[in-house]
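User: Is it possible to get a 3D structure for a protein together with its bound compound? The compound here is iron/sulfur cluster. I've pasted both below.
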Amino acid sequence: MCLGIPGRIVSIDDAGRKLATVDVSGVRRQVNISCIIDDDHPPAACIGDWVLVHVGFAMSRINEAQAAETLKILTELGEAQAEIEAMRKTGTR
Amino acid sequence: MKYADEFRDRDKAQALVREIEGLVAEMAVTPDKPIHIMEVCGGHTHSIFRYGLEGMLPKAIELIHGPGCPVCVLPMGRVDDCVAIAERPNVIFTTFGDAMRVPGSKKSLLQAKAEGADVRMVYSPMDALALARKHPDKDVVFFALGFETTMPSTAFTILEAEADGITNFSVFCNHITIVPTVKAILDSPEIQIDGFLGPGHVSMVIGTAPYDFIARHYRRPMVVAGFEPLDVLQSIWMVLKQLKEGRAEIENQYARIVPDGGNSPALKAVSQVYELREFFEWRGLGSIDHSGVRLREGYARFDAERRFAIPNVTIADPQSCQCGEVLKGVIKPWQCKVFGTACTPEVPLGALMVSSEGACAAHYQYGGARRQGSAA
Ligand code: SF4
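Assistant: Yes, that's possible. Here is the predicted structure of the complex:
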């Protein structure tokens, strides 16, 4: 729950409500992007961003290399599968 | 062995361990008077056990596994409250999967579900809100728990429910906050900690400034750490280096994720929606002042505690449970009388056996046999 999982923003679903779709290892789900946008980085600029997703919220922008490394570690920790499973079950758009 | 083999950067890790050994030798500490470093975050606990990091460190360093797993510190009374809400007619009770199996005084949420209560696992509070939209005739309750990492997500969800005028959604708020907890640990005469590994993802939200008192007032170093094995080792090295040089500072090893100022949209939502409780009850640690939050008056209609009469009684942990002593680092998991016998991940007696971030479950899964063997 607290480790989160990296994903990549593939589309903006509703800029007003700050909703976007992320792809996490092939699983897509809607996330809230309130925490990663500001005047310099509006929703439209988020497409393609790698982000750390915690319980359905993009909490932090990360770079691609970090994303890959983090995913590898989460897989080793046995966290990635559980996280992706929970996403798949409950909220794939 | 299961835990260490796949660990890739073994060379780098070993180099760090040698540096750590060097520092320990220069500091002339010995295993009978070890240096105590507490990792505050359950994610670190999990990493430490998963990669067998404790076994790589010199014996003169003792890691104390702190209270940073929100599922593990949830007191029995609160689980009973959840069950009471979930068993009301017309309620859909939603929770993260981790919390389903935490034992209450009579049953867990999982057992309540088996007996017919409508308990559903969600991945996000937004999923709970979606259920409320889908079932306007039901009362949908979200069991909100976690430290500052998950606090903003609940807050944003409540703000969205408010904006949309949703009336059948509420939150049973059990969010807890890290700073008063660290302070309680520092004030406890039972626990002697020389330095801390600070929580990575909590700090991503709150930044590093809230920890300043640890260095300034208590003169203890803290290093905010990532949860990858090299992060943890490097952070331990940074804590030791401070100790050796007589410094006490808040350092940020995890700057790639943790901005010193935290995340401002998240902090704004948090302060808008919550206020501090006077105190909050922790499993094993007792009541800690200002360690929990509740919804502000303006969001009362989204507050399950005000919406439903909940039993809200404090229930002591079973006699045989020693979770409190483990949480405080007074004993090691395997020293608990029921570890691995009456208390296992399949049938947990204490909450530390439930989540993979709990010291007992992590120990049982990855490190138990080895440490037990070497301790015997
Ligand atoms: S073994 Fe079980 S009862 Fe004992 S401290 Fe661990 S979780 Fe608590």
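Chain A touches chain B at residues 1-4, 17, 29-32, 34-35, 37-38, 52, 54-57, 59-60, 62, 66, 69-70, 73, 76-79, 82, 86-87, 89-91 (CB under 8 Å). Chain A has a mean pLDDT of 87.
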